[in-house]
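User: Sequence in, structure out. Go.
Assistant: Echoing your sequence, followed by the structure tokens.
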Amino acid sequence: AAMVQKYQSPVRVYKHPFELIMAAYERRFPTCPLIPMFVASDTVNEYKSEDEAIHVIERRCKLDIDAPRLLKKIAGVDYVYFVQKNSLNRRERTLHIEAYNETFSNRVIINEHCSYTVHPDNEDWTCFEQSASLDIKSFFGFESTVEKIAMKQYTSNIKKGKEIIEYYLKQLEEEGITFVPRWTPPVACKSESSTCHPRRPVSPAINIPESATKEGLSSKEILNTSSSPSEPTAGTPDDKLDADYIKRYLGDLTPMQESCLIRLRQWLQETHKGKIPKDEHILRFLRARDFNIDKAREILCQSLTWRKQHQVDFILDTWNPPQVLQDYYAGGWHHHDKDGRPLYVLRLGQMDTKGLVRALGEEALLRYVLSINEEGLRRCEENTKVFGRPISSWTCLVDLEGLNMRHLWRPGVKALLRIIEVVEANYPETLGRLLILRAPRVFPVLWTLVSPFIDDNTRKKFLIYAGNDYQGPGGLLDYIDKEIIPDFLGGECMCEVPEGGLVPKSLYRTAEELENEDIKLWTETIYQSASVFKGAPHEVLIQIVDASSVITWDFDVCKGDIVFNIFHSKRAPQPPKKDSLGAHSITSPGGNNVQLIDKVWQLGRDYSMVESPLICKEGESVQGSHVTRWPGFYILQWKFHSMPACATTNLPRVDDVLASLQVSSHKCKVMYYTEVIGSEDFRGSMTSLESSHSGFSQLSAATTSSSQSHSSSMISR
């Protein structure tokens, strides 16, 4: 069972013109002292165009791979041969490099593609990118060993690539070569030739302020921080990540970690049009799953759906915490710790958890905790800018002074556990450190109750101090500056956090009252969910009176693969019969299921298809619209998509095969929202959809999809 390993690099920007980089690159051949394993290379094939604009050279490279002697013995080789084909286009100023292995090519398939191109915003800079795939079919039973060796060698070479170019650039400079002229056509100028004035000054696409480039900001960041939204954001091509940006905003990642981030982000761009979380947030999910891209993708998709369902993106702007919380919830943000992480102070011992749960219910408390986490994300971003280095988590200081048996009240503990669960699932890797102060004797009991629910990575970040130990060596001062230690801990800093205290019983509410409120809070969502079964699609009826209206839709496939259709019918379908067997409406807690199209209706006679069917895979988000041509009844249909026998998905996973064997896989879930807009209002409809209704993620940089064809469903592979 072979596993294909893939690698995709960020964009590396060299602040030198293409021609100079080429001069440096050429010096790597035939051998290079900086790559000891690169023993020799011979030219096998060479082609030059007459005008010398095109130069293709194919080399056979001999590598001495650093592998255990035993393995070399078993394999029966000392050296590994690669074929490398370089295609240089001096007119376009591009170099494309393709490489593959010749040795063991029937057992191991290695493909690599690299390119050097001109930076889109500055023609005196050069971009470098590389991608590769490794597929080990068989290797005398040593497949995993070979995979490890190959990955290790490969990643160490990625790191070297940049050093090598810089080494030869320096060498050129020492020889007095700092400029290599661009290619010019050899013939006399013809008036129609576009390359007639190769020396004409070209103004860069965007004027990058001098000061910024000096500080080493990449042009991408300058563009992203541009104040006016109407400016076109050019930046790195296709919204790719560049290496300098990663280092500055996301931290030191290994090449494979960078690759995982780039590939997951690419997948999101293809499937979640317009709702891509920020890079640092994608990275948190990858970290939470040790950079296993499939697992990270799964939890991230669940979290995106959850955010959308509960309108989490709008919490900070639209939700005002009830007064009881503002008065009695003893927690708040307080400056930052020594590492620049935002600091959250919680005086849990002073807080009447029982009273809060009784007066507010679990939902309002959960919602409040979510708003605190959203604020935390915002503060991390802020601090990353202020401190000039990536800060992606916060520190939490919990003061247990005053903790008593009241805090062990079961519903309170249950509420706490549920809140921890929701936070762990949707804000992974955000807790940088947890300082627990003044822990009383009852604490070990509480701790044994709660700790099993907290994952190991997080538990390692906990520091617990009993009594006044926090004032001693190894205490609070190691983590927080003296000037900001709060007054209630004996510091000199006024801390604005409310003092808590008992919630008056007059504010308690009955379970019924809370129940009604809870429901209101939780279903404050414009999305509806539906279940789709094999043989039982979900259908929604839309009646159109004005012939040229626009039906818009926006849905997420939460589970399974479905086919989306839109039909038109002149006559109204019968309202769904609730028959005793419940064949038509299979009600389940997971959403409704309604069929409208009568079994006796014939496609083409009673109703017609107005859009071609769209297959949507699990985890995808689709937005689209249809301009109606006739009045009458339109039916949107989500239908179970059965996998053909040998479906080739881009990511064949064992899970898919297993899932198709389970009965539960005959159920799909969809979360949808539809709206009809008059055609004259449609011009800005995507923008209106974004602003007023759709739960498009605010986590995303605003990637809108406004330019739509007349009838289209936005989904891309």
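User: And one key feature?
Assistant: The domain at 317-506 is CATH 3.40.525.10 (Phosphatidylinositol Transfer Protein Sec14p).
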